[in-house]
Amino acid sequence: MNSAQQLSNPEANHSELVALLPRADIHVFCETQETGQVVQRASADRRMSRAHVTIQLGGIPAAVQVYQTQPTPNVLVVETHLGREELFRELGRLAEVCQPSTKVVIIGHVNDVVLYRELIRQGISEYMVAPVTPHIFMEALAALFNDPKAAPLGRVISFVGAKGGVGSSTIAHNVGWALSQRQNIDTIITDLDLAFGTAALNFNQDGGGGIVDALGQPDRVDSTLIDRMMTKVGDKLSLLNGPGGVDRDYSIESHAVETILNVVRQSSPAIVVDVPNMWAPWIKYTLINSDEIFITATPELPALRNAKNLIDMLKAARPNDKPPKLVLNQVGVPKRPEISPADFAKAVGLTPVAVIPYDPQSFGLAQSNGQMVFEVAQKSKAAEILAELARSLGAAPAPVAASKAAKGSLLSKLPFMGKKSS
Length: 422
Ligand SMILES: Nc1ncnc2c1ncn2[C@@H]1O[C@H](COP(=O)(O)OP(=O)(O)O)[C@@H](O)[C@H]1O
Ligand SMILES: [Mg+2]
Description:
Bound molecules: adenosine-5'-diphosphate, magnesium ion
Number of helices: 18
CATH topology of the largest domain: Rossmann fold
Helix content: 40-55%
CATH superfamily of the largest domain: P-loop containing nucleotide triphosphate hydrolases
Strand content: 15-25%
Shape: elongated
Structural class: alpha/beta
Strand order of the largest sheet: 8-9-7-10-6-11-12-13
Largest sheet: 8 strands, mixed
CATH class of the largest domain: Alpha Beta
Number of strands: 13
């Protein structure tokens, strides 16, 4: 979405992908309760958890007042109802108290591309037309900190099982494979099950393991290092995995996972994360901060209880995101009493996006060959459903980098309301 589109249609369909905002001070001066509430909702979002946001009423005049005696923050957002002439007069006053390094963002009520261009030329970092949504707000702020030359961010797609052995890893690997092979999307599969992970086995690899070192010293991690740690397992598919052994102790910090995923996201459009079935702060962190989450469950009571707990927690922690996706797997085990998909859906409050039959022949053969279900049982129902899952992911809108580049070149050059005003 570019700014011109956003101007003409503030409710325009935006990409779900917003980079994490850095530890910045962001001061917002609203004029309406509505805008205040939107900013409030955005500032409680996971992607803004590191930023320090303060919200006050009073628009530009209040900001001018406050910064007579205080330094301006990294980002100053002001809401205004003013039209062109009065707006420039007010901004002139604001410029007198505003540090050159402060990025000024305006939420305006006048929808006018000419005004927008003029403001940008004067050094305003962004002009959004009210009403804004939390997503539009976050997207605009995140764009201020993005390197305009950087590639668009990759999507982090996490797979977690509602209990061990439900097939979460198998599904993650097959969907990753299909994303790369069938949807032609460069994909990295990250296996965070360091001790017992099966990604390497399932792709018939015996190398890798480097992610342990990366998790141990996240501050050293950059894209070159990550590239070296990856094993290529297909034309467009790479693996970033643990050593698969128990001779070391692993303790993982949330911020290490954050650093690594942020680096990996910059090098590939799709990152499939195989999240182990255990509970720790870093697991919770990883799930909450994923762009998509697939919870795999078998149609049994323990899986149902755990799936419900995970779904409830994730919905509550991610009020501005789509809910996680539920996959029912190993459905139809002979002689096993099972909960029907409809009852399962009702109990957890989420309809499964896929119901995969129990198919020990196809899955067993794939596992023993170190191949994907697609390769050993192309015609199976399971292969068909897994391909459909990958297709649904592949069809999601990709983030747009070009508009950010165009915007970035403008705003990085000019100081806000500099002497060169026309
Ligand atoms: N639909 C299925 N039918 C039969 N076996 C399956 C199915 N899905 C997964 N499996 C098998 O179940 C076992 C556990 O799978 P895995 O992906 O390691 O589970 P998790 O990662 O949830 O612990 C593997 O042997 C896998 O081949
Ligand atoms: Mg697993």
